Structure formats: C-alpha cells, structure tokens
Amino acid sequence: MGRVIFYEDRNFQGRSYECSGDCADMSSYVSRCHSCRVESGCFMMYDRPNYMGNQYFFRSGEYADYMSMFGMNECIRSCRMIPMHRGSYRMKIYERENFMGQMYEMMDDCDSIMDRYHMSNCQSCHVMDGHWLMYDQPHYRGKMSYFRPGEYRSFSNMGGMRFMSMRRIMDSCNYVWTQPLGSDNATMMGKVIFYEDRNFQGRSYECMGDSGDFSSHMNRCHSCRVESGCWMMYDHPNYMGNQYFFKRGEYADYMSMFGMSNCIRSCRNIPMYKGSYRMRIYERENFMGQMHEMMDDCDNVMDRYRMSHCQSCHVMDGHWLMYDQPNYRGKMSYFRPGEYRSFSNMGGMRFMSMRRIMDSMY
Question: Architecture of domain 278-361 in CATH?
Fold first, then answer.
C-alpha cells in the first residue's frame, strides 16, 4: 500500500500529515512541507496540486530536507503512490506524436535512446506493462516523469519534454508491505488470477497490479479468482468501457453473474485506504451550481439533496464508487482522489448514488 508522513518544517518538525495513497492537494492538511518520511512504498511527488509541475521519485527512507537534496525550488503539493508491479515490463516508444515515425519496443532499462536506437526524439509512447520513469537526459538524469500503463499520444502538454532515458520502477525499490489484520498471505496490493474459460479452466494469467491490456497474455477471459484486494475491471483495454467492482472471491462465470456482454480486457487495483472520506458533488460541470459535501455513503442524491443532476465532483479523500441509479444499482464508475470537472466523457453518466470503498471489503 505504501505510507508517507509529511512535516511542515525541516528535520521532521512541525505539524505532520500521514498519507497512505494519492493526495491531490496537501494544502488542507499542511500549509507547507519541508521534510518527509517514506515508511513504505514508492511515491511520485509533485510541486503543484493535482499531480502537476515538476515530478520527483521518492522511495522508502528519510528526507530531512528534501528540497536541498533534490535542488527543488518549490515544496511538495501533491503525491501519487506507485503500485508494486512484479510482472513483465513492456513499452513502445515512438519518434513522433500519435504513435508515428520509427518505433522501438522496450522491456528493460535504457540509459540512452540515442546510443541504443540512434533516436533523437521521443514524442509519444504506449506503456503496456509495468511502471516507468522517463528522464530528459541520458543516464537517468535531469527532469523525470512517471508513466503508468496507458497510451500517451503526445508529450506536448509536458512542456515539450524530450525523453532520452527510461528506467523501470522495480519491486526492489525498498517496498515494505504490511498485511491486513487477520491475513497471513494477502497483501494490501492485491492478487487476481484470470482464466480463459469458465470454471477456472484454460490458460491463466496472474496479476498483482494494474494491467492496461490482457491481449498479450490471453485472448479471452471468462472466469477469475480474486485472492486479495479490491479491483476495478473494464470490458475494454486501457481502463475504458463499462466498469465492474470485484472483491475477494471466486467468479466462475462473471459474465453471467454481472450481465456482461464483453469479457474483461483491463483491470486496476484499488489501494486499501483507512482514513476519512470526503467528496464534493456539483450540479453542473466545472464545479458550478449547487454543491454538497459528502463524508459517507448516499443511496439517493435526489432524496437527500433534492439534486437531479451531478455533472462534476472533487474527491478529496478515499476511494468511491458512483452509480447511475439510486440504491447502488446500475452502471458504476470508480473515482479516486482528484478533480473531475466533467462527466461528459463518461457517456453522459448521471450519478444518483455513491458508496465508499471501505477497508472492510478487503
């Protein structure tokens, strides 16, 4: 899961804030941050809210004055936990935007794309497996950016970054994983085994983290065993399409169980979270119209708030499921901490009930 403690002053002094997952804005917890202790896991830190600005990689250790250590001008404003990944690593890098120009597939670290591939520009990439750090100078130096599985069609929104070296974020990066109470074998990170056929038959694929596309591992999936953790499953690659929530258990024929038309194509692990829950929902896009702040489940926003539309939201704390029908029914979507300014790209979903993903589900 990972755990980091932020302190207002250097040498671990002043008010502190403990974080066990993503945090889009620390300003509501600490007015500034000048030191931190990463007690477990790996984190990407950002000097702007909402995972913007310069990025810095932190693993387990003590950082009594990280600004001096990394030559930072601004203190940390947001952070993102990097899930542990124990499978294969695979990424395609492209010379031009939108996956054009010469392409190379990578499965290990590369200290200089110029030396290895004679490639002076990398303007788009597709991360199929694993989590990666990319640097704007050879030999893993200079400004860095974190890439998790997904398609990155253009780097123009990253200030014209020109990536020259790439490194995998391995499970050897000093992760210190704790286990849920009462469990001898299930880690907080989670584990799921997918099978090609119903009733756990056929070829299988074991997954312990996010996977953007199963096609390289198996051509279909009709059953699965969730051995630990909670997961969001998607019926299209790259976390697209309809979403389905899976917790620990056996799903011998999940398509019939959930009324699914397509089998699972990608999955995302939901980190365990034990803190408070807080979310603001808004009547209109871009946080406009009437607003209501929620700290617990809501089975019907119409009954509770007399609110017929919810078109944007801001998740401050915790992980949530939102449904397009009252009483936690119908199509669902997974929301982790962050700002969601418009639901128009979700097929016009009209969310009517919300439920917290509690640690009791793990």
Answer: Sandwich (2.60)
pLDDT band at residue 113, thresholds of 50, 70 and 90?
very high
Residue with tokens 């999955």: 267
CATH number of the 3-82 domain: 2.60.20.10
Query: What span, in angstroms and rounded, lies between the C-alpha atoms of 86 and 207?
Result: 8
Burial of 96 (0-12, 13-18, 19+ CB in 10 A): middle
Residues 236-254 have pLDDT tens digits of 998 889 999 998 888 999 9
Distance in angstroms (rounded) separating the CA atoms of residues 340 and 342: 6
Please name the residues in contact with 336: beta carbons below 8 A apart, sequence gap of 6 or more. 21, 22, 270, 315, 319, 320
Mean pLDDT of the chain: 86
- Give φ, ψ of 171 to 5 degrees: -75, 0
Fold of 191-270: Gamma-B Crystallin; domain 1 (2.60.20)
DSSP calls for 228-265: ESEEEEEEETTTEEEEEEE-SEEETTHHHHHT-SS---
The model carries a pTM of 0.50
pLDDT tens-digit series, residues 16-31: 999 888 899 998 889 8
CATH number of 90-168: 2.60.20.10
List the chain domain ranges: 3-82, 90-168, 191-270, 278-361
